[in-house]
Amino acid sequence: MAVRWKVTIAYKGSHFLGWQRLPKGRTVQQEIEQLLKKIHREQVLITGSGRTDRGVSAESQVFHFDSFLRIPKEQWLKIFRMMLPSDIYVKEVEEVDPTFHARRNVTKKRYNYYIECGEYNVLESDYVYQLNRSVDLERMREAAKLFVGTKDFTAFNSTPLDIIENQVRTLREITITRQGSKVVLSFLGKGFLRHMVRMIVAVILDVGLGRMEISDIEAMFEQNDKEACKFKANAEGLRLMEVFYD
Amino acid sequence: MAVRWKVTIAYKGSHFLGWQRLPKGRTVQQEIEQLLKKIHREQVLITGSGRTDRGVSAESQVFHFDSFLRIPKEQWLKIFRMMLPSDIYVKEVEEVDPTFHARRNVTKKRYNYYIECGEYNVLESDYVYQLNRSVDLERMREAAKLFVGTKDFTAFNSTPLDIIENQVRTLREITITRQGSKVVLSFLGKGFLRHMVRMIVAVILDVGLGRMEISDIEAMFEQNDKEACKFKANAEGLRLMEVFYD
User: Fold this and answer.
1) Chain A nearest CA to B239, separation (Å)
2) Nearest CB to B87: which of A57, A122, A127?
3) What pTM value is reported for the model?
4) How many CA atoms lie within 13 A of B208 on its CB side?
5) Three-class SS of residue B212?
6) B120: which chain A residues are within 8 Å (Cβ-Cβ)?
7) Of A12, A91, A122, Cβ closest to residue B123
8) Max intra-chain CA distance, chain B
9) pLDDT tens digit string along B45-85?
10) Residue B96 Ramachandran class (φ > 0 left, ψ -120 to 50 alpha, else beta)
């Protein structure tokens, strides 16, 4: 009987065209499925907790797959760590109940967005947004409050309404902290829509830079259409930090 | 009359074949000289404070060049920042006396070596050595003491003796500290020989891992030949931190 495996991984987004398998080009899913095919000598598909866009990194992303091979979890961990390329790192492998589903069972996700407010940093530029100027944290925190709670995020994501009609989602918290010369925005919620975090970051950042007012955000919520917000923060600053299950 | 410019830069070593211009392949010197040639419409050579090997990064490297163009320093800064690729960052441009020499006038240099002792980090793996196990800092500090002061480093560098006969150099200090899950070895000295820091790090690390004893290092110093030490730590962990002038 097949065993279902839950796997937790980290990856460096700048090296991939994103999570999802594509007809052509290097993606995280494709790299992992390619290895699983080699091991199983047949195609084995994986199911991620959700996609990440091109350039977005993960400190902790989760997927599941089923295997008929009798390989213990310590062995899976060794195989993955030895055979996957160095920009994907398998943190944990667990045997789970066959009813576990990496996407459907998600209860919460945490995304962080990293902004370098100090001098340009050549070493971190693949995975930190290089703003290289100071921002007003208090104004940003004021702006962030508007997005917390259960809201219609139609204006703040790029999923078309004919694909997902109901764009009401719940953001549980947005915290904004300094880490050295960086500012980190941390989002906790269930169900993020496409580009939602990056669009919210762009708006909060514009407030922090004095290019936008709180009332402008209120107007965007009122307008409530796909034309309201035209910007999204760069992909490299975004990182999937954790996927939660019950 | 030509003006001599002193330029301070940072670069991401993993993207280059090293500092020095090569007949083929991407190097830091080649990228900068290529830009200066475009600006001057003739070849302009730069002189670095010294070379860095393939894979070695710099938070602060210095070079000088001479130019007949009447470009003020703020303008040079803008040109460099706009036209150099994103893995080279110009931090400062200063007009200096024509007698200033970026290599000959060096009084000290600081190199840091970064070791990740915690979990493998996909994001930092280009510029931190991934050891991913714990080390004994006290033993490492004991080992480091042997290298501080004026010593014959013949056994601990790969410059052949027929190229540089006198391999006595002075290391002013080696500090070893924890920075989160990383261990950082910081070297301050004048005149580092080729691979010297990386060979010393390899030996100190072997002591920290219990694979070598203090007496083994003493034996290497006594042997005092190019066969004594066969290892050097990986390039990616090494970073040129600062070049000092009077």
Assistant:
1) 11
2) A122
3) 0.92
4) 22
5) coil
6) 89
7) A12
8) 60
9) 999 999 999 999 999 999 999 999 999 999 999 999 999 99
10) beta
